Amino acid sequence: MALSLCLAFLYAVGTVVVLPSPQELVLGAAAYAPGWAVILVAVAGRACGAYLLFFAGDRLKRRIRWGGREERVRRWAAQLERWVNRLGAPALFLFLLLPGFPDTAVSYVLALFNRRPWAFALAFAGAAALRLSLAFLGIYYVLGRG
After folding, report:
1. What does the pLDDT look like over 61-104, one tens digit per residue?
2. How many domains, the chain?
């Protein structure tokens, strides 16, 4: 049970940072551990992964030097940053609710231009909790009734 929960945590971190796969696949660990524990560990993994990704994006943003020749790129990046920060965590939360959608690439863009690490991580955690709970209940309902 402990190994499956550890792997569920690592997979959840990986879906934010490097794995372009749906987070619902972590529910396979529910065969070896209680479903609520898998969801709780996966939510914690998604929040930790989002927090790490935010700081990686912040560090990358500081390293990028926008030169004079890339004026168009700099303006585009400034507009994207304003858009991300105007919409904020609620929009990120709603976007992350799309079931079965691998959100790794979008996570990178949002991490690069976001300014609030806790809101970023909580949006990931909240959306993961809701998505995984609904998916687990759907699987339980189908397997329990079928």
Report:
1. 777 765 555 677 777 777 777 777 777 778 778 778 877 666 76
2. 1
